[in-house]
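Hi P.,

Sorry for the delay on this. The queue was packed all week, but I finally got your sequence through. Input first:
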Amino acid sequence: MIIFFDIDGTLWDYKNYIPESAKEGIRRARAKGHKCFINTGRARAFVTNKELLDIGWDGIVSSCGCMIEYEGKTIFNRLISRDDAIRTMEAMNKYGFKPILEGPEHLYMEKSDYTGDMYGEKVMREMGERLRGIRNSWGKWEINKLSVTCNPETSAQCSEELSDLYDYMVHTPTIWEMVPKGYNKGTGIRKVCELLNVDAADTIAFGDSINDKEMLEEAGIAVAMGRSSDEIAQIADFVTANLEDDGILIGLEKFGLI
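Then the structure:
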């Protein structure tokens, strides 16, 4: 069995707290021969937390399926072309969006756009030297996807103008993720199964939010964390406990994986 885990709201909370029971469950699952993958909307550059990585993983699917690593090696990496990235940034400027460009090695943002913003401050704090300015790196970005703060007055026009390039995950009217068309966490599972010659029926996924929808639909078994949205809970085979209440461990035990 291949087991896929979202990060935010599934493996840890907004303070990056990972329950010991989650670490124990994942290690026990691997000891029984199951392969465990992170499957996250975060770009790989934003998956560097030592405590998280030290749990031990067989692979990482990042950027909503745009990048895949297995046994420490990159086996798939879909980058946005330079021309498409410049076209995207020109649209961001035109419509008053504030983007964060997300890639394998770096994130790119203008710090002034996010000063005082809770998420923006978290990115700045955690990325350190791996965070670069958009304007200072113009046209040299290496990116898989974007996160943006939208201008609600122009969001419809912008999404239409770039509709040939991106699928949109709308978290709130002002917070979107923009992922190259045809990619999501579900296609990440499909690609892993293709590369490892495994049937998707032999997978299980743990998630909690709207960008986990395709992952949970693709997996053979879908586990929603406690506090998941109604939309996510409705497509799950099992709704487990909150992450801090041993949700990962309970889910793994439920399906006989440990």
